[in-house]
Amino acid sequence: MKPVLLVDFGSTYTKTVLADVDEGRLLGTASSFTTVQSDINEGLAHACAKLKQQTGIGEYAETYACSSAAGGLKMTAAGLVPELTVQAAKEASLGAGAKVMKTYSYQLTKSDIREIDKLCPDIILLTGGTDGGNKENILHNARSLSQLEKDIPIVIAGNRCCMDECEEILDGRQVFPCENVMPVLGKLNILPAQKIIRELFLKKIVEGKGLTKAMELVSGIIMPTPSAILEAMQLLAGGHGGEPGIGELMGIDLGGATTDVYSIAWGKPASAKTVYKGLEEPYAKRTVEGDIGMRYSLRGILEAAGTARIASEAGLTQERTEEMLSYLEEHKDLVPADEEFLRLDDALAAAAVETASIRHAGTVEQVYTPMGETYVQSGKDLRDVKNIVATGGALIHSEHVDRICSYAMGKAGSPHSLRPKQARIWVDRKYILAAMGLLSRKYPDTALGIMKREISYYGD
Amino acid sequence: MDKKKLVIGVIGSDVHAVGNKILFHAFTAAGFEVINLGVMVSQEEYIAAAIETGADAIVVSSLYGHGELDCRGLRDKCDEAGLAGILLYVGGNIVVGKQPFEEVKKRFHAMGFDRVFGPGTPPETTIDALKEDLGVME
Fold it and tell me: What is d(CA A116, CA A106) in angstroms, rounded to the nearest whole number?
């Protein structure tokens, strides 16, 4: 037996998973509540004690960790045109597991610089121009960033012809040059930037997040939790070696403050009659809805869906719904037990899933031309995706996870949204996705085997 | 010397792809760096592409007769977007029906296009014009 401990440091919970990589099986899972940052090691000790009780194992061959503690990895990104390099920079940051606090297009102003100083991101991503393209903007922005008061690491992934000059302008700061996020118009190249962002997270950021002590326990990888989840989903979809995955998928992580949606799918236009517009989409895509969440971001759900709809779906009167919502806003840690609150939570979750999945998926528009009708697609076409993977407390603990997740599927009422038409719902019941993403770095076969066994589809 | 950069595409709801492909190959063979946006290109797409790539010229094609409507305001938007003075060409079947080409040309010049080419213009003509306007030495 070779037990490997996988730790997910969250802002409120430290979650641990113990796997045996010799036998390729899950040994146990445990979590512990952590109240303040400094207690992060205490939380880990608690969780490990619980694991020992469960499994009798207290020593580990290897330990790996991911973290979203202390706000996770916070970034700002700057580019040139909003729908081109700014979008590419955003995709790069989100895919690296970051929380994108703000994006800036065109030239950074003095007040933008003051704002960045105030936001104090962990990393700034500076992009702009295709290779050999626009130079002025990124050079201007490098000069602006040289005026920052705070010493924030800057990853430069813009027009390669300006790289030397940008480095000179930012001399004396922590600068990390890398390949352009959009070297050719419309082509995404975000993996090199993501690699540097993750390395930076490991080297510099972790120190600042009270994780240094925990680091001593950890043998290697530390990455942002969303990035671990994204890796797990890629493995689950695509398989490894001779072992097949479950195929293209959409993943939904419904949380208290945000809702993350993932898709592991190419999503190219399905027919020759469809013209694709806009920036290319990444195969492994992550979007974060900062205004959609079950507790802290309740209002965003209501703005998107309307209180009337939530009330009718929960089978409550509007007055009663308002009352309960106000109560929820004051009691953010409420885990519903009574019938009414359970129904309300299900209705909120359904609306959150619907809104977040619509924002993630691409759209298609019918256009009449003198040559007949054509279709214009932007974003990913996920209609043929056959799997939806549900994770996050609000989903995995709900009795009606299948009904809630069905709201991620395209319906007759929204023909323009390219969401899955008919998909099987998989549930990450033991909350192991992030841990399996960590494990997959060194033991992909084991991670895949465990996921295929433990992540069951609804009804199993 | 760096290659001169052209953004090309077929404007509006026009899906005529063949001429677009021919122009792409002809311009590339003539020594230009060509950013081809394909068919059904909006004014905003030409502009975004030209900004990001630092293009020297935008070459608009139109074959389905609605070019005049589609092209209106493109120069103004370029000016607004910081592309003041960028070379703008248009060519193809750019108006409805058969109209005297001199008049058509006048109208498109007034809309801010530097050069206007009628139906059946060989790519070489446009290439010569581009070289002249962009100061490309043979």
Answer: 15
Residue B25 appears among annotated catalytic residues: no
Is the Cβ of A187 closer than 8 Å to some Cβ of chain B?
no
Q: Which residues contact A120 (CB under 8 A, 6 or more apart)?
A: A74, A150, A152
In three-state secondary structure terms, A331 is: coil
Which of B15, B52, B56, B69 should be substituted to probe chain A, the one whose Cβ sees the most A Cβ atoms within 10 Å? B52
Q: Are strands A222-224 and A154-156 parallel, antiparallel or unpaired?
A: unpaired
Between A and B, how many residue pairs show a Cβ–Cβ distance under 8 A? 62
Under 8 Å between Cβ of A128 and A79: yes
A256-294: per-residue pLDDT in tens?
Answer: 888 999 999 999 998 888 989 888 899 999 999 989 999
Residue of chain A nearest B63, judged by CA positions: A370
Residues 25-44 of B with CB under 8 A from A: 33, 35, 38-40
Q: What is the complex's ipTM, to 2 decimals? A: 0.83
Does A350 contact chain B (CB < 8 Å)?
Answer: no
Decide if B14 is catalytic.
Answer: yes
Contact A83 B48 (CB under 8 A): yes
- Residue (of A448, A456, A18, A386) closest to A233 by Cα position: A448
pTM, two decimals, is: 0.88
**Which residues in chain A are contacts of B43 at CB distance < 8 A?**
none
According to DSSP, the residues that pair with A289 across neighbouring strands are A259
Ordered domains of chain A (ranges, CATH): 3-70+209-220 (3.30.420.40), 73-202 (3.40.50.280), 236-457 (no CATH)
At A44, list the tokens: 């880990």
